[in-house]
């Protein structure tokens, strides 16, 4: 995922502005709901440069609408929008060079002012102005597209609010909790290998509302294009904590031969010996969660592992990670999506869109024929296409309905604070 | 000043516990008063490793009483103290190795919990227990000494609360203010040179209540001892902003020949060209203060300069910094202290105890015959005696009555976030 | 290219040991010839962690034969090899974990002993033992494969000797020269766009001697496989210095919108404004070369640019970099290789194998079906497949005959000290 | 010691230029003699930023004479000096800002050219010109003073050549030797405490030839001045390896309470557990020396310990380090210097001028009344008076006759690559 947000979207506008307004309210409310129960301080502190304060997420997603929908380029006739505070443009721009200078990312956590209450007031101010816009009879297609993009952008930040808060709380020796434990343990399903014969397949998103019924996609999912796949098999489910514990106990973190060169250097420099947030307490593995420290459930999917670890685990298991093309083709052929008779149960890939993002073997690069959009929103469509790897699926923190089979998430290979796990594959 | 507090004291107990109880309440209340008007976030964030969060200061000074007065070593008979939260011992120990492990200093700002309200409740809990102790009829002299030390320790942290909050607010582009401007500008007095003939003088603190009327001193001020001074002159007042502006305009920050080797490297690496917090706005120098951005007053003392800058300025002016021995002798001979006829007006050194600490040419080392105290409080009496320089006097942020002529403050030569200025001297 | 050498080879043994012995002598002699004219100091110093001393290259390539051909696993009957110095195994192992511990890479330049003369003696000692092996009547196919691999490995280090020495000499204000200027300037050919209709193509190396006439390839070039290409055009020649100067003068290094996010951060951190080694002297661009400082020839290919710069240049030009698949297909269809009537002149891509390596848009990852070899040599076949980009072609420093259309060189996107340039492409 | 050389001298010219010429030849020859047996590479590599290449020392000491004696300011009439290579002024200036820009210190080891032979030729060129100057009938006193300073400067670099070469060879796993072992082990003398009653004493150097018989001193040794000392005792000899081993075995490196705060941070960050260069081999301590690895002799003085370690050792032993004033007074009262009856054997301090420099408790600061000299040579007389500690005595690498009782050597408290040890003291 781009550090602070999404690549620009191939906007596929929804049919009815009224529906868009409802959706706007629902998405905006979800962000505020997450902040319930957080103190001003909880919402202010930045625990590392990769993470951002909750308050910053709340303000930045609001700045997006203020800047790109309510600013000078606003299509709303007759009324000129008054910015809530003109200094916020500097504070809450993430990385849009064309939108002007901005506060340095590593210093976001020093902004004790504005307070959380002031940021919530800022949100209400912008929401009011957005309602005036949303209720306008004739929204231009581009405007609808930008609003839709803003909502998907905000959903991405909702996931980041989970991961960034968890990282912050994990630094505190008191290990505070943000919510009650919610996961009901249940046994992992048996592992099956789903066979694929290979051949030519179409993947990616057409990026064209008329052909998709208006389904949204980020531009990096386009264009749809054909790929050649060799025969392969993919695991029916993701790797579990229990399986990962076997890897640890077999010495996987100490076998140089399993690791990429950069990964091995990271293991040694950082002293990695288990997934992020795991701790041994009285001989039992526990893990920090948003519900505080919890015992590690062997049957649950492993999460908070880096690409380096996922890749080493796969090699240890005698397998490999799937490519993103294999993953998407396998997901499309699973019954959950097509719902057709052509996808019998034995081809059904479980845990496609949760509870963990799944590292793939594919570097995040442009699809053939990829074009960047114009303007500030699309200024940097491809600027993150270097050094990162694609993850597919979705996580427990991904807002419902946000993920899809063509979705391309991406992170650097050493990063672990997201809800990332893995699914195995092998050649046939 | 020790990063997080004081060297242990040569405790000179006050005569009456009742007076001590009043003093306890006054000092403790002053810390809480400073935090008035701060948000939970303001009190939580750490703007750099040298600084600590306000909340941490409030808790650490409380931990001091809890640990050294109310803990196992408590002399209070009959009642066993119940710690407010046993985990706080880990969070709020600063650097006392004998008091157990502690939270890493650079991560103090990640502690969003306990909240500011919880820390204030912690203070009340400890204050209540301390009251029981203070009202006890027969406090052992050692106990009185430890309480006295704890209060002077807390006063040091009160000054740090000023400087650390100012540093935090200075990082915020909104440049928030904690209070109203309070300084009333008035013209600087003419600069006079106070002549001293040299000779043998006694400096330092005897560290013995019977000979001092019970005056407190930190152990690094002891023992009193004789020094030889050559003839010298010392400036009647400290250097002003206007004089510093001359230094800037004459190119002082670009003349390698004025600087210590390590200082010149710092100037170039950090790009220094003016005191910390100064900014040019529309061609006028302004400075960040606890009252927000304010115009620089040419007649006011320059502050927020490092030893490196003070030393270079003195060389530029054809003078030098006084040694701490010269400063103390000159201060003692000034009428303000002795109040005797032997100190006529022309020997009176102005601005002895404010508004800025005054860099001296003296490295912070042990006085001849210095002995460290025993126990955890005195564990590290001399552990900071390396690489730092002594400052004398006091600042606007020093609690009234805290400073004295023998007081030795100390910081590293590159540090600028304290209220530090300088007074010139020269050989005769 | 792997930092210190090659991925293991899919060895395609040559038919006749006699030919192999001649080839052995020729390759080994070329390394020594490069060192002619260098002082002991020139051959010892390491100018940055990415580079290695010339002496180290000479010894490490020798260690390869000593360890993998003459060591315990030697197939030579009857005689046991005596190592020249058993401590050299520690000093001159590059990164083979299975071959035991090794001297830290960044400290290679501290080895003033053994001297250059001693290293040359070490080479002669090993060469003598290798001759005994090479002249043996019946070399096992695996042995022939390992020797062949060792020679290609040494050729890779021969190129690194050029780039590492150039980097060292470029740090010296005296700008020493290792040889006479050799390039004869001539006009760049006109730029043409070679059209390709797209479709399904086979790329990569079969890795099987019987089907290739014994042609060698590194294992990362295998397996041969089919790819789908969309219609594209590729430039007939590489980008010139004159074209790069236009980019500079148009402000390319200051336009954030042209750059990848990581690239822009690098430009700002490093202050990049031109290719590595360029300097303005009296208003004229010059560049450090192995013949010392030389004027920049506008008609010559630009070199010493990073992936970040190549990618930004392509965006500035309204084009893009080719993928490695496009490059290989275009190279295969060029007349130079096939020599058949099917490749008319208008499809001929110039400068395929020199004078500069050409950055492609493709991250260096495994081909579908890629398998790592077994044993120490193949221990880490894929360990560098993370974060690097593929370069195709070859350079003036590549030994004749070393490059081929399937060859995959690779470096990190910020690295510039190799002879790297670029060729443009665009969608059709 | 200033990183690259001396503070400027209070020149005390010798009476006869003829004697000066002989001394010139002797000092210059000693530098060249040290380089005998070193390869070009040995003389070129820089093992850390604190150290310099041997070749650089040889050239820099020569540059000193070329710049300050033979350059424009030369007093030699009639003949204009032609610099050997005008580019050397940039390469071999150490830190004299007034002498123009200079090559960055950490990159001195990248200068493979000029070669060692060329540097030796440079030395001969300058020596020839110096001879013409030295044989001139009427050398101005300032000229004599500058030459004398240049020779003492070169002697300082002769000591640095020992320590820098040792550091370089210690980085090489082959542990090469520069010479044969020369130390003849003998038993350490019994430790006695030499009592001093305290009082007023004169220390420092008068800096005036007429009153010293022409004895040279660096300006930081001046002016002579009176100091008050309290009663103290000083050890008759320096601390031995055997005594240091007791400190190690008692856990001294693991007791936080023994260490200065900055020292403890260094111990933990660097993992110190013994003096620099010590290694356990088969359970026996060995140490790297210029004669290669040698067993540690329990009776020999400990060396290669930092101020932090010396200070911690003294605290562990229940003693302290002497101040530089105490050391000088005790040295002056020892019979070795005065040779008078007033210094009976029981006051004789052994090992005053070797074999190790002795850390004192005194920061390196200006003596009262210290004045910097004018001109480039004296440009930065006091620029190193910050953060360093004074060492007294001399070492096995100090040229004979170079040290004296007033001599003030100085290094940072973490530095260990010099021949530094310690002598204990205590209050009386």
Automatic annotation (TrEMBL), chains A, B, C, D:
Matching entries from InterPro entries are given as: CTDL_fold, DinB-like, DinB/YfiT-like, EgtB, Sulfatase_Mod_Factor_Kinase, SUMF_dom, SUMF_sf
Which pathway does the protein contribute to?
Amino-acid biosynthesis; ergothioneine biosynthesis
Question: Which keywords appear in this protein's UniProt record, sorted alphabetically?
Answer: Iron, Oxidoreductase
Q: Does the keyword Lipoprotein apply?
A: no
What are the residue boundaries of the DinB-like domain, all occurrences included? 24-158
One GO process term, biological-process aspect: ergothioneine biosynthetic process
Q: Name one Pfam family in it.
A: DinB_2
Q: Where is the Sulfatase-modifying factor enzyme-like domain?
A: 193-333, 353-425
The record's PANTHER family line, in alphabetical order, gives: HERCYNINE OXYGENASE, SULFATASE MODIFYING FACTOR 1, 2
Q: Which NCBIfam families match?
A: egtB_TIGR03440 (TIGR03440)
What is the recorded name of this protein?
A: Sulfatase maturase
Q: What is the lineage of its organism?
A: Bacteria, Pseudomonadati, Pseudomonadota, Betaproteobacteria, Burkholderiales
């Amino acid at each position: 995922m781009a550090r602070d947000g999404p690549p620009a979207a191939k906007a596929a506008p929804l049919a009815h502005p009224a529906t868009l307004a409802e959706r706007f309210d629902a998405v905006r409310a979800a962000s505020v709901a997450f902040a319930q129960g957080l103190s001003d301080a909880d919402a202010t502190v930045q625990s590392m440069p990769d993470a951002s304060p909750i308050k910053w997420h709340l303000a930045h997603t609001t700045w997006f609408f203020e800047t790109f929908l309510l600013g000078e380029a606003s299509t709303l006739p007759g009324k000129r929008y008054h910015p809530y505070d003109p200094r916020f443009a500097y504070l809450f721009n993430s990385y849009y060079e064309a939108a002007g200078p901005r506060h340095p990312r590593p210093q976001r956590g020093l902004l004790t002012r504005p307070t959380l209450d002031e940021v919530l007031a800022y949100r209400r101010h912008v929401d009011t102005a957005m309602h005036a816009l949303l209720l306008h009879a004739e929204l231009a297609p581009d405007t609808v597209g930008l609003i839709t993009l803003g909502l998907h952008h905000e959903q991405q930040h909702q996931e980041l609010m989970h991961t960034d808060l968890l990282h912050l709380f994990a630094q505190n020796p008191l290990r505070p909790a943000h919510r009650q434990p919610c996961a009901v343990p249940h046994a992992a399903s048996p592992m099956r290998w789903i066979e694929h014969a290979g051949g030519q397949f179409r993947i990616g998103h057409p990026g064209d509302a008329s052909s998709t019924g208006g389904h949204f996609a980020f531009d990096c999912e386009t264009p749809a294009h054909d790929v050649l796949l060799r025969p392969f098999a993919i695991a029916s489910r993701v790797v579990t904590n229990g399986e990962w514990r076997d890897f640890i106990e077999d010495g996987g973190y100490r076998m140089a031969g399993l690791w990429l060169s950069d990964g091995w250097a990271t293991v040694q420099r950082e002293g990695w010996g288990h997934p992020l947030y795991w701790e041994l307490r009285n001989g039992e593995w526990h893990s920090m969660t948003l519900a505080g420290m919890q015992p590690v459930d062997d049957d649950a999917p492993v999460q908070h592992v880096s690409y380096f670890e996922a890749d080493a685990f796969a090699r240890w298991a005698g397998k490999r990670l799937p490519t993103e093309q294999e993953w998407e083709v396998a997901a499309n052929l699973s019954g959950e999506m097509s719902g057709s008779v052509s996808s019998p149960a034995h081809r059904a890939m479980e845990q496609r869109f949760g509870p963990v993002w799944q590292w793939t073997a594919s570097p995040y690069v442009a699809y053939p024929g990829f074009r960047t959009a114009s303007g500030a929103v699309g200024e940097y469509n491809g600027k993150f296409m270097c050094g990162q790897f694609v993850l597919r699926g979705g996580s427990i923190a991904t807002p419902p309905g946000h993920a899809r089979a063509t979705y391309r998430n991406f992170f650097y290979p050493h990063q672990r604070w997201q809800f990332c796990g893995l699914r195995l594959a092998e050649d046939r």
